[in-house]
Amino acid sequence: MINKLIDKIQKTGAPIVVGLDPMMKFVPDHIKKIAFEEKGETLEGAAEAIWLYNKEIIDKVYDLIPAVKPQIAMYEQFGIPGLIAFKKTVDYCKQKDLVVIGDIKRGDIGSTSAAYATAHVGKVQVGNNLCAGFDEDFVTVNPYLGSDGVQPFIDVCKEENKGIFVLVKTSNPSSGEFQDRLVDGRPLYELVGEKVAEWGSQHMGSKGYSYVGAVVGATYPEQGKILRKIMPNSFILVPGYGAQGGQGKDLVHFFNEDGLGAIVNSSRGIIAAYQNEKYAKFGSVNFADASRQAVIDMITDIDQALKNK
Predict the structure, then answer these.
(1) Which candidate in 55, 105, 123, 158 is catalytic?
(2) Is there a catalytic annotation at residue 105?
(3) Which of 21, 40, 183, 185 has the least CB density, counted as fewest CB within 10 Å?
């Protein structure tokens, strides 16, 4: 799957991923009206609204991008109906030949991690059948419990030709409370990066990159420069672009000299673009057109930054 991701990035010329992180405040009133008339002002109605919202955005941007990243918490808040909307979104994106990165941030003791891995990137035995659960292509993994929390994901991904992105240096303001702590004189995120490189060295794709990648926030470009050197063969998923303050010029050191090695995420900066003054001309009815323009602008910004590297 890492090879497919690279192929899609090269074909589109867009090393970006659209974060499908819907919140009800992002969904235009006309979409909510349709959903609530059918399902009521219920969890089912909310789930229908975010599904309709997602679908329209996907239809407008799928030809421009290699991948999407639905954040499962935004669906879980609507209970079981929300998870059904999550699964419908995953399946629809795969029908559009998009690579799906499930932003689930799981990581637990071995047996529990194995169950999470099965649920999201593997298959579960049901009688005589093997059934896929959520069936994403990649997932994000929290390494805090150590190798036995990560290894089940690596094992399932090897079997299913899928991949993971391990949290190394996250984009949120308080990430340094733990991630920047010095261990033997070095910040913890560097040690986690070394572990990712070690895991990845055993699981290389034919294009020179491992299916064990890392999450490093765009909001920490200097740390990104260090981690790029520590993990030369790991793809880096870079959140924090746009709404969290990251810009194209901050991202150049996340990429290798071959122009690959990183994929940059923008979530509300794209899916809620119509609420941004820059794209207000589109209006709420044409919210998905605003999202398409935001994708085009993001591609241009990153491309110009890489050319000026």
Answers:
(1) 105
(2) yes
(3) 185
